[in-house]
Write a structure and sequence with these properties.
The structure is a homodimer. By secondary structure, the first copy, chain A, is α+β, with helices and mostly antiparallel strands. Chain A is built from three helices and eleven strands; from the N terminus they run E-E-E-E-E-E-E-H-E-E-E-H-E-H.
Chain lengths: 204, 204
């Protein structure tokens, strides 16, 4: 298997009829002034019927002797043609709760076995652009479990994920460094990091 | 002018040829295993030529006698058919810096006159779904300026934005309450709030 740098070869416009995973939608709506207008947005085609959310992000904080560290991933993302730094995450399967999706995705992507602790409200990624959303699930990881000492991820054949962790308290400074090194930052991770930075700045 | 609740009337699939503001793209790329694959994603059509970012989010913290408060907006979002709670934000105009966009958008949407303090790295909203991104600009607001005592927003004719502020330290609890009240939460705001909550939880 050759190991090279992932990269884009070409791009083309994609019609809704050919698209399998995404679609473009035009909404006709009445604004609060009573005027009828239209709005364009993008959607996933994968949200399970009856579900009000697409996926989950996972906050897994590892309690190490040296302090708390947060579990992160590096993954090549074709839309950006960059390696992106993100929280573990994934789309929810039909019939699955957010907590089940979080525990499953964490095991598949990182090999860590965890227990769900808290689940956030639904968060919408870019409300003027798309309707895509997710819930943030905080999980606890028992480092003494054999599975968590000998990690066995279960990645898809087209998934290449590098798992790593950094000190939670340093997360914002690390984000700034990562961008300087040429990585792309996932906004859900970077906004979370910014919240930690602001909390520290103002002694909240 | 009738004042009613904004709501969706109908939705339809939108082809790229008809779409003005968004488009669907198919990327052919070589993965790090050397295998050629494709990936679908959505993009804005509005990113200024030569710009590497689409827009800005604004963190405006007001220093009140009762403590620090963060400036927020409620805005009906047709893709969600909900009123969404968000940071002030907007797309960047051609030739404008992130700081200029932030100060301009804040004045237009809220009436507040501010000065840019810090600018974040680029943050990507949903890297497997789209290439859309933004920078977070922290601004300072001098409450003693006459313009900031007698606010005059400059909204577009199809923009209806309610401006308000909440205690920065309470932001996460407020997010949880807002979802219970039926509002949608913007992920950039809610992830930021989660960071504050986690920093407080772990005494960072």
């Amino acid at each position: 298997m050759s190991q090279g740098k992932a990269r884009v070869i070409s791009t083309e416009l994609l019609s809704n009829s050919e698209a399998e995973w995404k679609r473009l939608v035009k909404t006709t709506y009445i604004g609060q002034d009573g005027v009828t207008r239209t709005w364009e947005h993008a959607e996933r085609t994968t949200r399970p019927k009856g579900s009000d959310f697409d996926g989950v992000s996972v906050i897994a904080i590892l309690e190490k002797d040296t302090g708390r560290e947060i579990l992160l991933e590096k993954q090549y993302r074709p839309p950006l043609d960059k390696i992106c730094i993100e929280l573990p995450a994934g789309l929810v399967d039909k019939g699955e709760t957010a907590e089940q999706a979080a525990v499953r995705e964490l095991k598949e992507e990182t090999g860590y076995v965890a227990q769900a602790l808290t689940t956030s409200p639904i968060m919408f990624n870019d409300p003027g652009f798309c309707n895509t959303n997710f819930k943030v699930v905080e999980v606890s990881v028992d480092m003494s479990l054999p599975e968590n000492q000998n990690l066995k991820p279960e990645l898809e054949e087209n998934e290449f994920i590098e798992v790593f962790h950094v000190k939670l308290a340093d997360l914002w400074d690390e984000c700034v460094k990562w961008e300087a090194q040429g990585y792309a930052l996932d906004a859900r991770l970077a906004s979370f990091a910014k919240g930690i930075q602001i909390a520290k700045k103002y002694g909240l």
